[in-house]
Amino acid sequence: MGAKLLGQPLENRYIQQQPDAAQVIVVLGGGSVGSAPDGTERGGLMSAGAARLLTAARLAKQHSLPVLISGGQVFRDGVSEALVAERILLQLGLPQEQIIVETRARTTKENAAYTAMHCRERGYQSVLLLTSALHMPRSMQFFERYLGEQGVKVAAYPCDYTLNPQGKFNPRWLVPQLQAFDVTCMALHEYVGMAGAFLQR
User: Fold this and answer.
1) Which residue in 83, 99, 113, 134 sits closest to 25, CA to CA?
2) Handedness of CA 43, 46, 48, 54 (dihedral sign)
3) Sheet containing 153-159: order of strands
């Protein structure tokens, strides 16, 4: 029940905007495992990152839009999330010229700051921001701030939902579940991050 109460307001804050006016899809990294086997390669995406990338790949193919992947090496023994994601997109058939990698960002704030630099360099004035629904409100805080300063419009495209957006009450919610605990922890992390983002103004 706690997961629903905490997570639902975050996941329902934004709806998926149509990418018609966007010049680029910006997808945020969601964690990687540097030494994980991936066929003949090493390095894999964690579930949130994989879900975001799959959604980005589908949109990029449907609308012929470039994809800017933002995500650096967060931990010393890790790997750049953007480089792993780039390899996967290429294996999924997206052409190299449709992929832009940003490998320095280690936080959501840095995702926004470095994306703003890429937009300025490439002349993008409209982006479609793609990240997990729980993470979208905090991401929009930073992206509207950093990209808005240079006149770039940001549209939200939440994905990787953890809760049913229109779910009705189910008695099962009253029974403790590991998944619900995970959602509660992630939601609390987002609320704390949003408060920090507000104080950084």
Assistant:
1) 99
2) positive
3) 99-102, 67-70, 24-28, 126-132, 153-159
Q: Are 70 and 114 in contact (CB under 8 A)?
A: yes
Rounded to 5°, the CA angle 6-179-158 comes to 55
**pLDDT, tens digit, 9 for 90 and up, residues 122-157:** 999 999 999 999 999 999 999 999 999 999 999 999
Sole residue written with tokens 């090493």: 42
Q: Estimate the crossing angle of helix 2-11 against helix 178-199, to 10 degrees.
A: 50
Distances (CA, A) of 165 to 8, 15, 50, 169: 7, 10, 21, 12
What pTM did the predictor assign? 0.88
